[in-house]
């Protein structure tokens, strides 16, 4: 399973990289607009500190221009995957990028039909928007679960990358579904760490140890 961070905030990427769980970073135009830098600078900066792919979304709406942007993104860093919106023009762009061997996948995906088209196109990944499906009154996690079953049935190799994850409850349900990959905001990843019982347990061990000091200071530890 791969875990990506959905942000262009370098401080948060650096901080969360220390946990040793990140497989790459996803971005979108809204995330990069928030970072107030050019898309190229955002990708270059993220690529410098991340071990793994950086996902960069095309801005154009027409297939020709999407292809042009995705090609150019390849020059920005060593491991860039182009995100192509799952529109009619987008599927055409995906098909052409496949022919050129440029890594690219379908994003802003809301239906099983779109996920099947992406897989048939040998897309590198497909990104269903779980939170936004829920916002629209649908079952985001349930939709991803059905996509995963279909992908498994046909042996599609496209990575099913669940996106727009709003909380750890959705994340855990996606893990249970055996999804290939998830991308989440720094907040949702941070929320994976704490548990009140862990804090309570650690406090109990500290109290039991009392003022005995570091175990490395004990007699008998000769290193
Ligand atoms: C996916 O890669 C998108 O960047 C992202 O997950 C969209 O999520 P949102 O619904 O929180 O904007």
TrEMBL record:
InterPro entries xrefs: Aldolase_TIM (IPR013785), TAL/FSA (IPR001585), Transaldolase_AS (IPR018225), TSA/FSA_arc/bac (IPR033919)
Molecular function (Gene Ontology), one example: aldehyde-lyase activity
Catalysed reactions listed for this entry: D-sedoheptulose 7-phosphate + D-glyceraldehyde 3-phosphate = D-erythrose 4-phosphate + beta-D-fructose 6-phosphate
Localisation per UniProt entry: Cytoplasm
Predominant cellular place of this UniProt entry's protein: cytoplasm
Name of the protein: Probable transaldolase
Organism of provenance: Haloarcula limicola
A matching Pfam family: TAL_FSA
PANTHER family in UniProt: FRUCTOSE-6-PHOSPHATE ALDOLASE 1-RELATED, TRANSALDOLASE
EC numbers: 2.2.1.2
């Amino acid at each position: 399973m791969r875990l990506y961070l959905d942000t262009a905030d370098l401080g948060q990427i650096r901080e969360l990289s220390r946990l040793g769980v990140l497989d790459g970073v996803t971005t979108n135009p809204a995330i990069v607009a928030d970072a107030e830098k050019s898309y190229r600078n955002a990708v270059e900066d993220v690529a410098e500190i991340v071990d793994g792919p950086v996902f960069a979304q095309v801005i154009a709406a027409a297939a020709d221009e999407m292809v042009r942007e995705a090609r150019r993104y390849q020059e920005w860093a060593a491991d860039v995957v182009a995100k192509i919106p799952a529109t009619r023009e987008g599927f055409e762009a995906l098909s052409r990028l496949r022919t050129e061997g440029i890594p690219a996948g379908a994003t802003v995906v809301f239906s099983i039909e779109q996920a099947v088209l992406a897989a048939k196109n040998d897309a590198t990944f497909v990104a269903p928007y779980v939170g936004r499906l829920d916002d629209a009154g649908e079952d985001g996690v349930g939709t991803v679960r059905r996509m995963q079953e279909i992908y498994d049935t046909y042996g599609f190799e496209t990575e099913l990358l669940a996106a727009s994850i709003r909380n750890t409850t959705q994340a855990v349900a996606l893990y249970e579904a055996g999804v290939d990959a998830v991308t989440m905001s720094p907040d949702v990843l941070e929320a994976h760490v704490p548990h009140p019982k862990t804090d309570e347990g650690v406090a109990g061990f500290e109290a039991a140890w009392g003022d005995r000091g570091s175990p490395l200071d004990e007699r008998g530890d000769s290193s």
